[in-house]
């Protein structure tokens, strides 16, 4: 009787150990879902600042925004207001910051060094404004605003996650040959982005 009890005890112990081992193996082999590239289209920058959330993949009106657009100006939800007198410029309530990387969008797979991230401040925006300084170039003859190729913006979001984005177009429906003189078709952003929701440091 004692022998049978001992055998059953040993068998249970072997089964339990094997089960724990399989759980550990599954945890070690668990793959992190690939980060997907998403295209945001026709984000209006025509009336005040339009706030966008990467985690929600949409325009928002709450304080849980990551970047915002007004004309050719792009701001981040971190730091302080550049123009305190501008009531339309939203208060920064998050810990957002931006690092500008010169590379192809798909080639930016790791987060930049922490020291390269900047927040908005009274002295300057994290993404500089003006032709050739930030995200676009302006043709004085045609009045065309064109995104600068190879400019990728890595964003520390309002809640400490990360995203990267590249601007595709400043014109409604992102036409191949936009008409910059059509005022109704300007100030509409189309951009590609990838949002990293977990604690890894890669895209």
Automatic annotation (TrEMBL):
Signal peptide boundaries: 1-23
Keyword field: Signal
Classification via Pfam families: HmuY (PF14064)
Entry protein name: HmuY protein
Source organism (scientific name): Flavobacterium flevense
């Amino acid at each position: 009787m004692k022998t049978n009890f001992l055998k059953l005890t040993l068998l249970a112990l072997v089964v339990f150990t094997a089960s724990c081992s399989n759980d550990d193996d599954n945890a070690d082999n668990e793959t992190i879902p690939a980060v997907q590239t998403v295209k945001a289209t026709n984000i209006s920058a025509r009336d005040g600042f339009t706030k966008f959330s990467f985690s929600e993949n949409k325009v928002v009106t709450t304080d849980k925004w990551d970047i915002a657009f007004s004309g050719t100006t792009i701001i981040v939800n971190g730091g302080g207001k550049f123009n305190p007198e501008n009531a339309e410029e939203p208060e920064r309530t998050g810990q957002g910051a931006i690092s500008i990387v010169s590379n192809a969008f798909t080639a930016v797979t790791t987060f930049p060094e922490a020291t390269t991230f900047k927040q908005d401040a009274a002295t300057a925006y994290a993404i500089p404004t003006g032709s050739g300084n930030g995200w676009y170039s302006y043709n004085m003859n045609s009045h065309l605003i064109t995104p600068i190729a190879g400019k990728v913006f890595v964003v520390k979001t309002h809640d400490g996650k990360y995203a990267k984005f590249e601007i595709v177009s400043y014109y409604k429906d992102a036409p191949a040959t936009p008409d910059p003189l059509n005022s109704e078709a300007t100030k509409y952003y189309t951009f590609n982005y990838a949002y990293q929701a977990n604690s890894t440091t890669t895209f």
